[in-house]
Design brief:
Number of helices: 13
Largest sheet: 5 strands, antiparallel
Strand order of the largest sheet: 39-40-4-44-45
Strand content: 25-35%
Structural class: mainly beta
Length: 807
Amino acid sequence: MHLKHFFGCVVGAHLRKCLDKCKITKRDEVKGSSLCKTLGFSRPFQFYQCHGFYCYILVLAMHRVGSAGNSSNSARKSKEKKLTYVLNDADNTKHCAGVNCLAVLKSPGPDGCDYLFTGSRDGTLKRWGLSEDHATFSATFESHVDWVNDVVLTGGNTLVSCSSDASVKVWNCLSDGTCARTFRQHSDYVTCLAAAEKNSNVVASGGLGGEVFIWDLEAALAPVSKSNDANVDDCSTSTNGLGSSLQNTSLRPISSSNNISGHANQCQGYVPIAAKGHKESVYALATNDQGTLLVSGGTEKVVRVWDPRTGSKTMKLRGHTDNIRALLLDSTGRYCLSGSSDSMIRLWDLAQQRCIHSYAVHTDSVWALASTPTFSHVYSGGRDLSLYLTDLATRESVLLCTNEHPILQLALHDDGIWVATSDSSVNRWPAEAHNPLKVFQRGGSFLAGNLSFSRARVSLEGSTPVPVYKEPSVSIDGTSAIVQHEILNNRRHVLTKDTAGVVKLWEITRGVVIENYGEISFEKKKEELFEMVSIPAWFTADTRLGSLSVHLETPQCFSAEMYSADLSIAGKPEDDKVNLARETLKGLLAHWVSRRRQRFGSQTSVNGEIPSGKDLSSRALTLSRVEGDGNLENDSAVYPPFEFSAASPPSIVTEGSQGGPWRKKTTDLDGTEDEKDFPWWVLDCVLNNRLPPRENTKCSFYLHPCEGSTVQILTQGKLSAPRILRIHKVVNYVIEKMVLDKPVDTMSADGAFAPNMPGGQHPVVGDGSLRSGLKPWQKLKPSIEILCNNQASIVDIWNITYETTHA
């Protein structure tokens, strides 16, 4: 019997914000007390104060006992794929969440345009055309389904990105934003990349799973056979010219050794080299120009040095006392710079295998480094909001500028430096990278110590450095990220608040903002909008990407219905029930359905057959049912309350039977997507008008006269109703039974109350007995008021008391 220990953490909402603020994007999956030490705690369970919030952290030790032949868990039913749509009411040319990474593409010609690439926590990358004094939006690269954590350029026009969705994606950086290939070898968030400047084939990736992969791009981008689609997601029908762009590059040999581990998820016979050795999360990578040396760092607080051609370890450098967040190698591969959460910058001589200098410049974690072309000076930024320039030889340092948000990454461009922060905007500051002495001539420099930040501040004699530059030379503005939301009781509206304090009201069935309240109290507005209404929770929402993401999961999403009259749908009988999820899906995929009909014809699917000729799985058809709302035809019309804007279309995030999760604007769907791309239940709903089976839940209740009334009790037993019931049906029953003394036996069987039913069944308040116009007595307009929990439903004669049961 083998015992394994698994450690995880349950983190409160405030702690989640703190960790995000600290750029810890996910719990570090490390063993034992290392997890607590990584987050700064001395014990597995501790009550502590962090950035002004009192939070709890609980580290749970879970045990799993495995024995030979024990397969009790192997037959557990897998969870159905969900569909998410991401809403956006702002300018799509701007990021709406913090920018994690930067890359600059220099034009080979003097008259060409330079480009800046930005990767954001909103899950997208954007390309910007650069000029002397401004940046112009050029394209959006949308395919990642979570934060984009790093991006590198290689081979002239090849862009490689990594994300918290555990994928590495390859793009043609000069294309319209189409993903060329997706690799899913990592088991957890992919946090960092490194590319060799003079060997366009070599790219390394590292992540929270402790894995470091070295990729040969030419081999990895070879055409993928259909049999390997499950392992490699070919995001387009071609590689968008990437193959031809790499043909003239030198292909380094891929050798094998005992240190190389071929990952289980192989693609087309290609196996990325796995540099094994990290036991904990990897946060930083760097390589020399030729791609013959690779360094890595992370929560183990050591710098590991690898030979990327074989994946073998060459050395391990100790000195930092906290997580290593940034690494640089000079062009020769002899010197290495490292920045750490211990606030120190260290210079290593790899030939001597030791640290030769330490620079105590920052007062908090160092998260970003960039060096001048000669590797004589280093630019550094981090959690203390400050950007410093330090002379590595003289130890002289100067504060270039201060930001309003923590600095996440730096990228030099000519004599300026682009700065990415946890804000959605990106700024370029003067840097004098080709002649940094000009900056020191402005004065305000100080000598960097070699002690920790607490001692370094003392060495500054309490003086605060004055920044050289007050304003950036160029700014790329972003939009405010949504940081708070509340789903209202009507289950169609969501109240949000962004980082600027602006409160908005969203209608999620149309994906639009219906009210912008400006900078007001979120809590007060939430109270004002409270409605005494009960609708099942058919969706969930979050704001992790800086915008509102709505999640639909089967079968829960199909639990909510409303009457067409309450939705103000013209031309539809007022007592017709409308399933909110079904109509929302139809609205979301209206463009896709239209494009599909153009490709495959306008025939209607009536036998569970997709127009392309492919069948849904037998399981899907078996578990489906036609929604019985009196309208059995495959109604493809989209009602106005479910029409999504074409000007600001939402993005679909979902996953089919193959290829892994993907993301696209609804208007970018071309109609070729099928069951390999969408969950089966989405296709079954939109194409075949089928919904999953659900529990036939009824609500039982009693009708009693109000206190002081002399009216006799209507019935001796319970009354029952379907999941939703318009109150006028109850009023009509009261009038027919008591006011007009109408015999209940004459009520229609499909519609309302039927007392003395055989088998002890309850009388039913039904769905449709009152659809055929007004009854004669309704013209009398009697005054009737129904009270439920002392809330008046309609005009004080009757009191209705609910007792919920399930039929």
